């Protein structure tokens, strides 16, 4: 097994503002693997608000490689012992691809899926003035669902109303990224109902979730920062109606699928999102999104560059060509984009 790790810096088409910060770009970890003539590529963005970076993820991979078994079954077991996060997500997807190649099937067949279908995805609008957000909404005329980043200020209600005025046709969600208080949530609720908002994502800081114990929201609440792994699920189910599952948070597709099944058993709707990244980062998430109630996989639309094979966005939906999941030989594989830093290791 030859595994190479790279740190790429990718820029957003324009800076993305969310509650408390503005993101001009992000570091991502990219992994390339070669095994018995087969090839696999993976990308992970990590969880920036937990301190993950390209360098920290790369270090975790290198540490794992020190005692990585040479067989795929042993490798998968070792990867599942890693802490949840972007590094585990990327290595997990590497093993999925190589196992599928060994069996001669597309990777999605390992998830017992006969094929993949296009899914309606949210498209994200960063926090800005009401006028600017309305203008952004018009830049995506094919979008069927828009997610508005809001910051907890008095202008939030005006922003939502401005977008609804120019896009009466779309499903609207709002995402506070932990930036609201319970008072703001209560105060803005009437305006959100008036504008037919269908989802409120992570209104409070995760540490303040107890305030939701006695709050009965007429609009479903989605847990994002409050839901990292399966360990958080029971508490989330008491306070939220939707579980936002991201592979970078929970540690990969192998963790996301049982997390989604457990969320459903607890009565939660399932949402599959992402922490950013290019199309390469979304390949395993798109498998998890096949059975999701809500999909938020728009990151490549926000990026200045993309990887190949690229996600296709059409009429508000995301899709991948079937060839994106086909087994790849080492000679046929490609490495995408620039490589600012690289390390190579074998296992």
Walkthrough of the structure:
There is one protein chain. This protein is of the alpha/beta class and 347 residues long. The chain has 11 helices and 16 strands. The protein has helices at residues 54-65, 72-80, 86-103, 130-138, 156-166, 182-194, 233-239, 247-250, 253-265, 279-288, 299-302, and strands at 2-18, 21-35, 38-44, 119-120, 122-125, 145-149, 171-175, 197-201, 221-223, 242-246, 269-273, 294-295, 312-314, 317-319, 328-329, 341-346. The strands form 3 sheets. Strands 5-6-7-8-9-10-11-12 form an 8-stranded parallel sheet. Helix 4 (130-138) runs parallel beside helix 5 and helix 9 packs parallel to helix 10.
List keywords for this structure.
TIM Barrel; 11 helices; alpha/beta; 5-stranded antiparallel β-sheet; 8-stranded parallel β-sheet; 347 residues; disordered C terminus
Overall mean pLDDT stands at 94
Coarse morphology = globular
Number of strands: 16
Order of helix and strand elements from N to C terminus: EEEHHHEEHEHEHEEHEHHEHEHEEEE
Low-confidence stretches: 333-347
Largest sheet, spatial ordering of strands: 5-6-7-8-9-10-11-12
Strand content: 25-35%
CATH superfamily of the largest domain: Enolase-like C-terminal domain
| Structural classification | alpha/beta
Q: Count the helices. How many? A: 11
**Integer tally of domains:** 2
Quote the CATH topology of the largest domain: TIM Barrel
What is the rounded distance between the termini?
A: 5 Å
- Which sheet architecture does the biggest sheet show? 8 strands, parallel
Q: Work out the helicity level.
A: 25-40%
């Amino acid at each position: 097994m030859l595994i190479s790790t790279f740190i790429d810096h990718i820029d957003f088409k324009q800076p993305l503002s969310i509650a408390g910060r503005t993101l001009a770009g992000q570091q991502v970890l990219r992994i390339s693997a070669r095994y018995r003539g087969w090839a696999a590529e993976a990308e992970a963005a990590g969880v920036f608000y937990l301190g993950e970076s390209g360098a920290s993820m790369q270090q975790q991979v290198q540490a794992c490689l020190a005692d990585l078994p040479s067989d795929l079954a042993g490798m998968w077991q070792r990867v599942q012992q890693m802490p949840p996060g972007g590094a585990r997500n990327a290595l997990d997807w590497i093993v999925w691809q190589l196992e599928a190649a060994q069996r001669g099937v597309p990777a999605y067949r390992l998830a017992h899926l006969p094929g993949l279908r296009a899914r309606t995805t949210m498209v994200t609008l960063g926090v800005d003035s009401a006028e600017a957000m309305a203008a952004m909404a018009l830049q995506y005329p094919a979008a069927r669902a828009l997610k508005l980043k809001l910051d907890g200020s008095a202008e939030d209600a005006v922003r939502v109303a401005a977008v609804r005025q120019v896009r009466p046709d779309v499903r609207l969600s709002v995402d506070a990224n932990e930036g609201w208080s319970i008072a703001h949530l209560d105060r803005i609720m009437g305006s959100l109902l008036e504008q037919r908002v269908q989802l409120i994502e992570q209104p409070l800081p995760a540490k303040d979730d107890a305030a939701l114990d006695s709050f009965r929201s007429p609009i479903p609440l989605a847990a994002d920062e409050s839901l990292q792994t399966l360990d958080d699920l029971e508490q989330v189910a008491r306070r939220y109606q939707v579980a936002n599952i991201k592979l970078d948070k929970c540690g990969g597709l192998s963790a996301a699928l049982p997390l989604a099944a457990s969320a459903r058993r607890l009565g939660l709707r399932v949402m599959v999102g992402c922490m950013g990244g290019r199309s390469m980062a979304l390949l395993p998430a798109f498998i998890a999104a096949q059975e999701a109630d809500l999909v938020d996989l728009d990151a490549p639309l926000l990026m200045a560059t993309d990887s190949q094979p690229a996600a296709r966005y059409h009429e508000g939906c995301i899709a991948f060509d079937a060839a994106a999941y086909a087994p790849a030989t080492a000679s046929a594989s490609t490495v995408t984009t620039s490589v600012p830093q690289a390390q190579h290791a074998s296992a």
